[in-house]
Amino acid sequence: MTIQQFTFNFFAENTYVVSDDETKEALIFDSGMMNEKENRQLSDYLTQNGLKPVAAINTHLHVDHILGVPYVHETYGFAPRAHVADIPLYQRAAQQATMFGMEFKEELPALAAPLTDADVVTCGHLTFHIYHVPGHSPGSLCFHEKNEKVILVGDVLFNGSVGRSDLPGGDHDQLIRGIKEKLLILPDETLVYSGHGPATTIGNEKRSNPFLQ
Ligand SMILES: [Zn+2]
Ligand SMILES: [Zn+2]
Question: Which ligand sits nearest to residue 140's alpha carbon?
Fold first, then answer.
């Protein structure tokens, strides 16, 4: 498995391309590209590595994670899959953007088949199990590849921090409970890829994340 991390837009949001080295199939997580240059960065990476995107996945639907959705839809033909509880955020993308002092006028495609924690997402030989961890947003999902010992957590958990819970639908206690019950039980060496900032491990966060002690 190869994970390519891009950091896009005003919010330094991490977009990930996760690919199976053998089949070259790829998933695009959280398309955050905000302009031509960032669109090209994503597309060049896919082309240069001979990757075939098979789906777009969203950990959640905050505006910084969906700015590149129209481009991915136009270019590769798929809209993102996400949890239904975040649909109201998606419908209010333009308002979300205004709230953060930016403009987002593009039309978003209808979401593809929704995801719940009963689903798995596959890509070549990779299988991602899904954990629903609300509290940062109502529909926040984490995607765990058990064999590779990797989890993509969106804005649920960060290196040394946790997601903010002061946005609509946020709930700090629910977030902390979810992290402890669903993420901190994973093997310590599990690599954690977050929606912002550098990667970490479950063990690191268990030991030193001030919000989780
Ligand atoms: Zn977020
Ligand atoms: Zn974010």
Answer: 1
Q: What percent of the chain clears pLDDT 90, i.e. is strictly above it?
A: 95
Question: Could you count the other beta carbons within 10 Å of the beta carbon of residue 213?
Answer: 7
Specify the number of domains making up the chain: 1
Backbone φ, ψ for residue 204 (5° rounding): -55, -50
Distance from the CA of 195 to the center of ligand 2, in angstroms?
A: 5
- Residue with the two structure tokens 């989780």: 212
Q: How confident is the model at residue 132 (pLDDT cuts 50, 70, 90)?
A: very high
Domain that holds residue 63: 2-212
In percent, the amount of the chain with pLDDT more than 70 equals 100
**Two tokens, residue 169:** 């639908």
Q: Identify any residues that bridge with 34 across adjacent strands, giving them in sequence order.
A: none
Distance from residue 43's CA to the centre of ligand 1 (Å): 24
Rounded to an integer, what distance in angstroms lies between the CA atom of residue 202 and that of residue 12? 22
pLDDT, tens digit, 9 for 90 and up, residues 157-178: 999 999 999 998 999 999 999 9
Amino acid at 34: M
CATH number, domain of 124, equals: 3.60.15.10
Yes or no: say if 115 and 141 are a contact pair by the CB < 8 Å rule.
Answer: yes
Report in angstroms the alpha-carbon separations of 49 from 5, 26, 42, 53, 134. 14, 10, 11, 11, 35
Q: Kindly identify the ligand whose nearest atom is closest to the C-alpha of 13.
A: 2
